[in-house]
Design goal:
Blueprint: E1 6-13, H1 25-32, E2 35-43, H2 59-73, E3 77-81, E4 96-97, E5 100-103, E6 105-110, E7 114-119, H3 131-135, H4 139-158, H5 167-171, H6 175-195, E8 200-203, E9 210-216, E10 219-225, E11 234-239, E12 242-247, H7 252-256, H8 261-264, H9 269-284
Helix pairs in contact: 1-2, 2-9
């Protein structure tokens, strides 16, 4: 008997970091197989190109990619929003391939005339204190932030030999630092969202899952963060007009579900990659 999948109107995943030892790909795949999303938002750092190593790409990581392509091949509207660890994809912004879109940011129209602004959040790393007024310019301001970060990281890497700036790395340095950066990040994101008249602002990047209302002198907004699949194993789900935070640790259904027939097949990496390319080529036709 075929297992029924839980239907979700919108799924938001971020900071999976495929290609790294910290990625919990098996748990993610387990979760993905238990749901049927109508729209998928991949909000940055899906594949960790910064730390990518050909020597570490297990089958479970390729199976996650294959499952994404399965959704795309079936017509599931999918947005790939670029992050800092997969920033090389920003050159493909605006690319449309079947039901897949590559974007730097996305605005979704939701029921009751509400709007959600979705972006990864790494643009705040270098210019947290100046991000608010720049982003008030809308699309131009946000793209300016991306450019500023790119230039800063170029000089940091090539001239000063310090490597790229990573807010998530800074957050892990100490509890005090973490609280400060997370609060600044959330307040900055919320402030920009309020200034641009959005009802929701949805981010990733800081590996801190959250849903909460933030109020400033200009108004209120619901701030959401999908978390990650390195430490928190979390996602955002939108169903029947309501946002909820999914945590794998609290999901008894997927935790108790055994390996499916698909997992029993001993795929090797090349077979999975060939299957992925086949599905990719079908979408191009």
């Amino acid at each position: 008997m075929k297992e029924l999948k839980r239907r979700i109107d919108i799924l938001v995943l971020s900071d999976i970091h495929l290609g790294t030892y910290g990625c919990h790909a098996k748990e993610l795949l387990q979760y993905m197989k238990s749901i049927k999303p109508g729209v998928v938002i991949l909000n940055g750092d899906i594949i960790d190109i910064w730390q990518f190593s050909k020597s570490y790409w297990p089958n479970s990581h390729m199976k996650v990619i294959k499952h994404f392509f399965k959704w795309i091949g079936n017509g599931t509207r999918t947005y790939y929003i670029t992050g800092n660890h997969d920033e090389m994809l920003r050159r493909f912004e605006g690319l449309k391939l079947g039901s897949l879109r590559i974007e730097n940011k996305v605005v979704l129209d939701l029921p009751d005339n509400k709007k959600a602004w979705i972006f990864h959040g790494d643009v705040f790393d270098v210019t947290m204190q100046h991000s608010r007024w720049l982003a008030k310019l809308g699309a131009i301001g946000y793209d300016t932030l991306i450019l500023i970060n790119r230039v800063f990281n170029f000089f940091s890497e090539r001239v000063f030999r310090k490597g790229k700036l990573s807010l998530s790395k800074k957050i892990k340095e100490s509890v005090k630092t973490a609280v400060s950066f997370i609060n600044n990040f959330e307040q900055t994101s919320a402030g920009i969202g309020i200034s641009n008249k959005f009802d929701y602002v949805i981010c990733g990047h800081i590996h801190h899952p959250e849903i909460r209302t933030i109020t400033t002198s200009e108004g209120s907004i619901i701030y959401l963060n999908s978390g990650d699949w390195v430490e928190n194993l979390s996602a955002l789900e939108f169903t029947n007009g309501e946002w909820t935070l999914y945590r794998h640790s609290e999901d008894k259904t997927t935790s108790l579900t055994g390996e499916t027939d698909e997992d029993d097949v001993d795929y090797n990496t090349s077979q999975l990659f060939d299957n992925m390319l086949h599905e990719f080529n079908i979408m191009r036709k």
